[in-house]
Amino acid sequence: MSSDRVVVETDGGSRGNPGPAGYGAVVFDAAGRSVLAERREFLGVTTNNVAEYRGLIAGLTAARDLGAREVDVRMDSKLIVEQMSGRWKVKHPDMIPLARQARELAGTFARVTYSWIPRAENSHADRLANEAMDGEDPITSGFVADAGIDAGAAEASARATAEAPGWTGALGAPSRMLLLRHGQTELSVERRYSGRGNPPLTEHGRAQARAAAERIAEKGAVAAVVSSPLGRALETADVAARALGLPVTIHEGLIETDFGKWEGLTFGEAAQRDPELHGRWLSDTSARPPEGESFDEVRTRIERVRDELTTSYAGSNILVVTHVTPIKTLLQLALDAGPSLLYRLHLDLASLSIAEFYPDGGSSVRLVNDTSHL
Asked: In the predicted model, what is the mean pLDDT of residues 235-261?
C-alpha cells in the first residue's frame, strides 16, 4: 500500500536514562486517521534521546517503505524537533550519527516537516514505546519488525539501574534532582547580595539559560520542572521547560535567602555596615542579616522542599531551578555534610549539579557545578 503524503508520529523512552529503552512509531494517512504501519523495538540499555532518534528513523523508514513522497513528522521531543529542523546543533556524540542517519532518510522524500506535539497527543506512539520497554513481542503491521526483547534481561537491567552508585547500598529508584542555578543578572555582575529582590536576567543570562536548556533537553527524561518564584529563576526555568515540553511548577520554598538590609549591597558594603554581625554570619549558620534569614532557617524550609519533591516525584528526574543557597543546602543534605560546605562550595551562574535521594533514606551527589554547556 502506498500513499503520497503520510503523518509519522514517534516516541522513545528509557527507564532510568540510561536504562531499558524502546521506541514506537506509527504511520497514518494524510488525514491522521487510518494506521498504515506500526513499529516498535526494545533497544537494551540506552538513553531517552537515543531511543527518540531510533523511533524517528524507524518511522521515516516505514514511510519510505510505503512509498510516501511527503511526510509530516510529529514528536513530543522538543530537542529532536529543533535539531532536525536545523535550529539546534547536535552535540552529544551518541546522537550525531543517529541525526545524520535521520537526515539522510529525510533526504529521500520530496518534503519532510517536523512538529512538536504534547505527550497527550502522541499516545499511540507512546503506547508502542512502552510496549517495547515492557518486552512485548514485536509487531508486524505492514512490515517485518525488528528483533524482539528478552523480558528477563530487561527486568534485570531495570533492577540494576535502580541501585545506587558505588558502595552506598541504597536501594530503589531515586528522585534525581537536576539543580540548575539561574543565569546572570546585573546584581550578579556587580557581585551584590541578591536575595528576595527581583532583577531580570541580562542578555548574557538569557544566553546562559538557553545553553543550559539545550544541555538538559539532550539528557531528556525529565518528569517536571520546578522553580523558585523569583523572576530570574522563572526566566531560566521557562526556557528549559519549553525545550522539554513541560510546564513550570513554582515552589515557594525554593526562594533565595532573605538578606534583609544587606540586599543589593556588596560584600564590603555589608561588612562596613554591620562589621561584627557580618563577620559572625560568615561562619555561624544561626546568624541572621538585619531583618533577614539565617542559613539554619533556609535549611529547615529546604528540608521540607526535599521531602515534598521526593514524595511528589518519587523515582523521577526533576529539574529544580533555584539559587545558590537552596542548591548548596540540597547538596549538603545529599552529602550529609556539615555547615562548612555552605561557605566553601562555589557555584557558578547557570551551573548544573545533581543530587539523588533514595526511598530508603540514602542519597548521593552525581555532579557539582558543571558549566560545560556554557
From this structure: 94
| Cell numbers describing residue 362 | 540514602
Identify whether 256 is a catalytic site residue.
yes
For the chain, the average pLDDT equals 87
Radius of gyration of the chain (CA): 24
Classify 221 in phi/psi space as left (phi over 0), alpha (psi -120 to 50) or beta: left
pLDDT category at 223 given cuts 50, 70, 90 is confident
41, 182, 218, 323: the active-site residue: 182
Q: For residue 328, what are the domain limits?
A: 175-370
| Annotated catalytic residue within 52, 82, 235, 256 | 256
Please tell me the distance from the alpha carbon of residue 212 to that of residue 223, in angstroms, as a whole number. Answer: 17
Rounded to the nearest 5°, which phi and psi values hold at 126? -60, -40
Crossing angle between the packed helical segments 203-219 and 48-65, to the nearest 10 degrees: 70
What was the pLDDT predicted at 3? 67
Q: Are residues 140 and 98 in the same domain?
A: yes
Question: Residue 266 belongs to what H/E stretch?
Answer: none
In the annotation, is 182 catalytic? yes
Task: Specify if 168 maps to a domain.
Answer: no
Q: Do residues 190 and 338 both lie within one domain?
A: yes
Total structural domains within the chain: 2
Q: Which whole-number Å values give the CA distances from 137 to 16, 123, 147, 220, 330, in the listed order?
A: 22, 19, 9, 26, 43
